Amino acid sequence: MTIAFADLPTSHNDAPDGAVVEETWLDTIAADLSERGWLNLDVRDYLGRALLAELRQEVEILEKTAAMERAGVGRGSDFTRDRSVRRDRIAWLNGQTPAQQQLFGFLEQVRVGLNRRLFLGLQRFEAHYASYQPGDFYRRHVDSFRGRASRVVSLVLYLNEGWRPEDGGELQVFNRESPEEICGRVQPDEGRVALFMSEEVPHEVLPAARTRHSIACWFRQDVVPVPLTGV
Ligand SMILES: O=C(O)CCC(=O)C(=O)O
Ligand SMILES: [Fe+2]
Question: pTM of the predicted model, to two decimals?
Fold first, then answer.
């Protein structure tokens, strides 16, 4: 499901932890995004531990229900749930719980901040929870097909407390200029975020030794999604 901002409650910035994102912070992430195509950062100060814990509780509850579905790859008639490519399960956020509203308030500030600096014309975002069980992975891919102008910037927020290097499950990021070159690994620690250009930066999720929770978001240039079938 995709969220239209106009439909969202406007009260999210009043929430106790609804921090206002600093302009200088937005300057830095916009500069890194345009220079390197990706960055990773810690957003615990912006979101707060309480909100991160609430989001983690939501995914832990969803995981016990049928709401969490096996993820697929591709669009329209190419859509497949190929377990050799990705093995996570996902549930779309609908922005209706207080925790999701607060997160959406933050994402909206990032959207507006990036538009002001990089003129990307980001119209909206969509976000899903993802759950990887031990051994699950997502093979190397990019998040958008070139020229589709759909998903433009990807943001992944990790929700895992006390992640250790031996737990694996890093996001491995490849250089957009020379895609065989690994240019970074991000540990899926609570409050850590990976931000990258959706069309340009190949990445993969390495298998984890324990359950791995995240929220994957995409800032999109289209106002209305292209129909998923018949394209
Ligand atoms: O969870 C991650 O680190 C990245 C997930 C991802 O690449 C995706 O959902 O497209
Ligand atoms: Fe991805």
Answer: 0.88
